[in-house]
Specification:
With 246 residues, the chain is an alpha/beta fold. It has 8 helices and 9 strands. Helix 5 packs parallel to helix 8.
Length: 246
């Protein structure tokens, strides 16, 4: 049977947080009328992340473990997952469950309205940030977003929230072309989607920051460099033809 919804969850050393997230995702999906799959992408974990997923597969065959060996970065993990699932709709979310799977109910109408990409946002009206990041991370994020909008994705207020939905067509036109393996991949994915003519909707989310977040100060600086790289790639034609030309 064709899969309607594929959920991709990148995971690196997530044996402490992933189990609760996976249970919540499976419980939600088992109550839905459509076909689905969950792909956990093990990004070279050195803990028991893979064992945890294998145990889940025993009880729910629609859960899959994807592996490729060494640690490559979140961007690589998401790209690998999105290109190894088959759903008509493809969603990636974080292993810490900072934005819960039931947001799909709120986002799905925008797919029906004709949007190709629907992304979660902490910076649009209606967003609910239950637990905030450290103040300096929020300030860096605000400044960084101005840079991101200038170079890559005008009009998008929050490119970095880890809850994004792509139609099959958009996913297959975007993810195989992506080049950034670490934190700047969200910007690249949205910039390429825009460049190829796909319609993007930004919708509010309820977001709970995890105090054990793995995003470092260095990651913020790396993203700023990678944003410029994205613009250069667009100018060089790295991402292939626009949707309108396909």
């Amino acid at each position: 049977m064709a899969v309607y919804l594929s959920v991709v969850i990148p995971a690196y050393n997530e044996d402490k947080r992933l189990l609760a997230t996976l249970k919540a995702v499976i419980k939600y999906l088992q109550a839905q009328p459509y076909s689905w799959e969950v792909a956990i992408v093990d990004d070279g974990s050195k803990d028991k992340t893979a064992d945890l997923v294998r145990a889940a597969v025993v009880h729910e065959s629609r859960v899959r473990l994807l592996q490729y060996g060494e640690n490559r970065g979140k961007g690589y993990a998401v790209r690998y997952g999105m290109t190894h699932v088959s759903g008509e709709v493809r969603l990636f979310m974080d292993a810490d469950n900072s934005t819960t799977i039931d947001h799909f109910d709120l986002f799905k109408p925008y797919l029906i309205m004709g949007f190709d990409v629907v992304i979660g946002s902490r910076d649009v009206a209606g967003a609910d940030i239950v637990v905030h990041q450290a103040w300096w991370k929020e300030k860096l994020g605000d400044l960084g977003n101005l840079w991101i909008r200038f170079w890559a994705v005008k009009g998008i207020k929050d490119t970095q929230a880890g809850f994004k939905i792509f139609t099959r067509q958009a996913s297959e036109a975007v993810f195989p072309y992506l080049t950034i393996d670490r934190w700047g991949f969200d910007v690249e994915a949205l910039a390429v989607a825009r460049q190829k003519g796909f319609k993007v909707a930004e919708r509010p989310i309820r977001w709970v920051n995890d105090v054990n977040s793995k995003v470092s100060t260095r990651a913020y600086l790396d993203v700023l460099k990678e944003v410029v790289q994205v613009r250069m790639n667009i100018w060089r034609g790295i991402y292939g033809r626009d949707k309108a030309q396909s």
